[in-house]
Design brief:
With 186 residues, this protein is an alpha/beta fold. The protein has two domains: 129 residues, no CATH class; 36 residues, no CATH class. The strands form two sheets. Strands 1-3-4-5-6-7 form a six-stranded mixed β-sheet. The chain has a two-stranded antiparallel ribbon with strand order 2-8. It is elongated and about 80 Å long.
């Protein structure tokens, strides 16, 4: 197993020339600059360690990804950045073809037979997003209280609208008229 380390923003590239048909280990790091280079993502920064095991075969390659670290997200409750731990493992099959097609909506992509390297930046970016929770909140403290911005939480409490319970007796008169029409037709 061959190992190479890379940690520059634009260095999420695996050189393919000279790799034998065996497993090869590559290590990368996705940092603030990496995530900020994508302007439309939910992740605003972070420090994510990426381990890729490339298994090269005659007609394809298998890339096994292990990502772990912390990313910066905007809290859905108070709108401040917070650190969210992430971890994900997944794999993608790379087939050789006439032209490169990284349609990442499937478990396989196509790499041109003439390619001498593969840029895995998109895979790192997408897997980092796959690892995110659905809701983004600051973690609770030891007592179960939110650790959100206190001033923002006060504003939320101040302007929170309390819903009143509706009883079944309080039916909109228009619906009652429709119900009577329905009952008369039966």
């Amino acid at each position: 197993m061959f190992s190479i380390g890379m940690d520059s923003v634009n260095q999420h590239i695996i050189p393919l020339d000279g790799l034998g048909e065996t497993e090869h280990l590559f290590r990368f790091r996705a940092d603030d600059a990496f995530f900020q280079s994508y302007d439309k993502g939910e992740i605003k920064g972070g420090e994510v360690d990426v381990k890729v095991i490339l298994t090269k075969k005659k007609t394809s390659m298998l890339l096994n990804f292990d990502l772990s670290g912390t990313v910066k997200l905007t809290c859905d409750r108070c709108l401040e950045l917070y650190d969210q731990p992430i971890a994900i493992s997944d794999e993608i099959l790379v087939n050789y073809g006439d032209e490169t097609n990284f349609d990442t909506n499937s478990d396989a992509v196509t790499l041109s037979r003439d390619a001498n390297e593969i840029d895995i930046s998109e895979f790192i970016y997408e897997y980092s997003h796959f690892a995110l929770p659905i809701a983004h909140y600051h973690p609770d403290d030891a007592n179960g209280n939110p650790t959100c911005n206190a001033k923002m939480m006060e504003l939320i409490d101040k302007y929170k609208v309390e819903e009143t319970e509706k009883t079944e007796d309080a039916i909109d008169p228009r619906w009652e008229a429709l119900r009577e029409l329905k009952n008369n037709n039966n």
